Amino acid sequence: MLALAVAAVIGLGTTWMALTRGTAYGGVTIGAWTAWPKNGTAGIDPYARAMVARTGELPVGSGDGVAFYARTDNSGEGLDGRCDVLVSGITPQARFWTLTLYDPEGHLVANSVQRQGFTSQEIVRKSDGSFDVIVGPRVRPGNWLPTGGIERYQLVLRLYDTPIGMATRGGTEAPMPSISRVSCQ
Amino acid sequence: MIRMALWLLGALLLGGIVHLATVLLLPRLASQDAYARVSAIAPLNSVVPIPPPTPDNAVMPFMDPAFAMSVCRYDLSRGSLKFSVPISQAYTSVSFYTRSDVAYYAIRQKRHGSKREATNRVPLLGEPGD
Known about the structure:
heterodimer; A: alpha+beta
């Protein structure tokens, strides 16, 4: 009887850990960003399927695009909504891209200007084609993405109609914007 | 001592089985997956716009707020369906998902030169050949 109880605890415990900690396989990591292109195909692994079923999201289909998630900056520090964070650089080739800020559960974050992200069409670029986005709690000139002052958030960069996929490796092939902390209160 | 080790091994093995079973069964048992959420607002075989996500209200987590999204729950058991969507200049795509939220196909709008703000994405949910 005790053995059964222990087994149940171990089994359910490890399942819960696997699904909440996010231990999906086949991730493509470039800098601070990670994508799971396989999750948008019929070859999605059982853990990712269970995770998707639990959260209730629809993964971006691989024929549509690919979503890169960042929970930390380039130095590995968690993204803190009370700090100013600079997202800077260029994106890999894509027909259209969006950068969106979510709380850890994937909800949009309320803020005074009702801005939840940028698209490739509306972002202000520098003369060399790169862009700077300041992510922070207070109004900033230029591309300002408000955090609403929440403690933890994540950024999702979705590339639509892009050659980036499962075979992609980091470096010149896929230049992702860097994420760095500027200042903190 | 051996008895204790055997007992522990048994518990670990059983735990492993419970773990695998729950991971594999969860997609079938989940009551709040994307299909269930969409079912609440979309009747079968019709294209329904999904309200744009806001901080207080979103049909699904991780929706892209840059897109106008419509959804169609399809049932092909009584024949095929013809599906047409309006196309926006910036980017339009139609993604096909199975009943269990697995993306298996997508159609993208062909590229052409003009610019406009509006964008659409239409996920279709259902079982192919069902």
